Amino acid sequence: MPLSGPRMERYREPAARVEKVVTFRATVDADKLLVMLSDAQGHSQVLLPMERTYGTSNWTLTRPMPPGSYRYRYYAQRGGLMVYLSPADANDANCLIDGTEGILTVDSAEPVPDGKRPALGSDFAA
Q: Does the pLDDT of residue 114 top 80, yes or no?
């Protein structure tokens, strides 16, 4: 009599996440610069720090992102004040503006190997 029990299935490697590496760039005279990123409807917001190129006013942030539409804006800390900057005010040359927010569309994403993913808070730009 054959034994019954859990069915054995072949092990499958997890599929690579399909993402595209995106870099946000801004030129702003500030002590600290953050980018607020949200989905197209303005939900799921995240505030990420950008990195300054030493001795300049150039800031970048690079991260993998899945395909979709996103909205973003910048916040600059100057002295003790945090001020809002639209992407146009931050000299973001590649920005599409809707009101006071930039619009970013990520398409044709490709698998990003796990070892190649930049850490959150490293280089990021649009």
A: no
